[in-house]
Amino acid sequence: MRFYKTCLYCDKELIGRTDKKFCDPQCKSAYQYQQGKEHPERFYNKVDNQLKLNRKILKEYNKGGKVILRAELLKEQGFNPNFITHYWKNGKGDTYLFVYEYGFLKKRENNKEKYVLIKWQEYME
Ligand SMILES: [Zn+2]
Fold it and tell me: Which of 11, 14, 78, 121 has its CA 20 to 30 A from that of 25?
């Protein structure tokens, strides 16, 4: 474990707990804002990596036909349903979320969150 003796943002000496990195939440958010501006590719890479992981997980479980899984199962592997590439609404108003060619529909069954997995079809364009 690393110990910081001065604030990472303003360089002021830190008092109290020695594992603190910033003097206050203001310095912390100012530091994070600065880091984000200096390294914009970090956000791009983060999103890119999550999309790749999501696609890999969906692909692994999408064995064709109609697959219904517990959402928990995918989340345990690192799946994050907030990172998608596009969506498709069917005639019934169900919204399928897609990560490239692999899609999923959120569904509640017996009070448990589930995903119905599908693959992108030409008629969805
Ligand atoms: Zn500070």
Answer: 78
